[in-house]
């Protein structure tokens, strides 16, 4: 069906607006807040204020890039949660304002569901589709059944998320936030010489809080001057350990649940080793394997737009009393 939708994503520290027409992304503008890097993590109050400043500019750029006229829109979509309350409120209220002014329906989208549906932007994976979703706030294995909006979480993290593990270890190594991309970059120059204990937990579940402690203890025994010298090897070892935990569980789930295709989603799916290893498993097990383009891995509004497209087909609208949720 031909729909024209404008989507807004403000769940954390990226202000993003996308326009989708007939399932094709016409614009996906992302403004990342670099201000948090100096604090070693996202400062919620600062993020919310920055969204207020950025959102109008990002909306205008998305309209310009896509060449649309607002009155032609079929719906306004926004991220309802999970995320930071102050950040979400900016996007939710902007969407409500647009919906009221233009008299167009509102569509509320779950951020984690949208990371999975990012796979439907360029192609439709064969169903059932098993997706490993790995971000700064979540780590889960989800089975998408006969429709993109019909899915079940089959396992998730009991504590920290995989992205959080990357970021916390980066902080221990005095690297700026977000640490995931930096660890990935440094790891390319090193070898995984060091090993860390694996969490002993049931199938399909994840746990990363012990991993951070293990790295902390490892660094305690390491001479300070050596840390700098060994940084690429330490990063390669950390990346190797986190990715192995993820890949082992993904492989177990594939063998037991027999999906028709597999994929990864969320910010950590930008990780080079995770991308390579996921493609390797797919090849070995003869399964079509989907990895979103970089711009659709980290937070973006294009994934909100494609999810909204499917929700519009099903007429899943929200009213003006809709409120954000943080988890
Ligand atoms: O999905 P996302 O953009 O935001 C959340 O919804 O959390 O994910 C952000 C997370 C951060 O923890 C960041 O360090 C991680 O994704 N990340 C990476 C890479 N790029 C982003 N982790 C490892 N390797 C990367 N290349
Ligand atoms: Zn995300």
Indicate the topology.
Layout: E1 4-9, E2 14-21, E3 24-32, H1 44-66, E4 75-81, H2 85-102, E5 106-110, H3 111-117, E6 129-134, E7 139-144, E8 151-156, H4 162-172, H5 179-187, H6 209-220, H7 224-257, E9 261-265, H8 272-285, E10 289-290, H9 294-297, H10 302-313
Helix pairs in contact: 1-2, 3-10, 4-5, 4-6, 4-7, 5-7, 7-8
5'-O-[(R)-(carboxyoxy)(hydroxy)phosphoryl]adenosine (KG4) binds at residues 12, 135-137, 163, 166-167, 178-181, 184, 266-268, 270-271, 298-299.
Low-confidence stretches: none
Overall CATH architecture of the largest domain: 2-Layer Sandwich
Shape, please? globular
The averaged pLDDT comes out at 95
Q: At the fourth CATH level, what is the homologous superfamily of the largest domain?
A: ATPase, nucleotide binding domain
Pattern of helices and strands: EEEHEHEHEEEHHHHEHEHH
Q: Compute the gyration radius: what is it?
A: 20 Å
**How many DSSP helices?**
10
Number of strands: 10
How many domains make up the coordinates?
2
Helix content: 40-55%
- End-to-end CA span: 32 Å
Q: What small molecules does this complex bind?
A: 5'-O-[(R)-(carboxyoxy)(hydroxy)phosphoryl]adenosine, zinc ion
CATH fold description of the largest domain: Nucleotidyltransferase, domain 5
What is the name of the CATH class of the largest domain?
A: Alpha Beta
What is the compact description of this entry?
This protein has helices at about 45-65, 85-100, 110-115, 160-170, 180-185, 210-220, 225-255, 270-285, 295, 300-315, and strands at about 5-10, 15-20, 25-30, 75-80, 105-110, 130-135, 140-145, 150-155, 260-265, 290. By secondary structure, it is an alpha/beta fold.
């Amino acid at each position: 069906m031909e729909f024209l939708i404008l989507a807004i994503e403000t769940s954390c520290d990226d202000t993003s607006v996308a326009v989708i027409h007939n399932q094709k992304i016409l614009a996906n503008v992302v403004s990342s807040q670099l201000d948090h890097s100096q604090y070693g993590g996202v400062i919620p109050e600062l993020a919310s204020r920055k969204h207020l400043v950025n959102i109008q500019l990002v909306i205008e750029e998305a309209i310009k890039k896509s060449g649309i006229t607002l009155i032609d829109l079929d719906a306004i979509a926004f991220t309802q949660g999970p995320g930071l309350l102050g950040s979400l409120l900016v996007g939710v209220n902007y969407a409500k304002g647009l919906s009221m002014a233009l008299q167009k329906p509102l569509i509320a989208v779950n951020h984690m569901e949208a990371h999975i549906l990012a796979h439907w932007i360029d192609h439709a994976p064969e169903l059932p589709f098993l997706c490993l979703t790995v971000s700064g706030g979540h780590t889960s294995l989800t089975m998408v059944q006969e429709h993109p909006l019909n899915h079940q979480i089959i396992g998730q993290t009991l504590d920290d998320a995989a992205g959080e593990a990357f970021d916390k270890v980066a902080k221990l190594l005095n690297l700026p936030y977000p640490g995931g991309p930096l660890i990935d970059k440094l790891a390319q120059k090193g070898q995984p010489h060091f090993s860390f204990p694996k969490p002993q937990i049931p199938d399909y579940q994840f746990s990363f809080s012990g991993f951070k402690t293990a790295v902390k203890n490892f660094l305690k025994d390491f001479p300070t001057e050596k840390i700098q010298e060994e940084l690429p090897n330490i990063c390669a070892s950390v990346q190797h350990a986190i990715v192995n935990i993820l890949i082992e569980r993904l492989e177990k789930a594939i063998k037991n649940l027999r999906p028709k295709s597999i994929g990864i989603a969320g910010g950590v799916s930008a990780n080079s080793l995770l991308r390579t290893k996921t493609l390797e498993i797919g090849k070995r097990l003869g399964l079509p394997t989907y990895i979103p383009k970089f711009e659709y891995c980290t937070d973006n509004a294009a994934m909100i737009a494609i999810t909204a497209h499917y929700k519009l087909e099903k007429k899943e609208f929200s009213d003006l009393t809709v409120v954000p949720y943080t988890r």
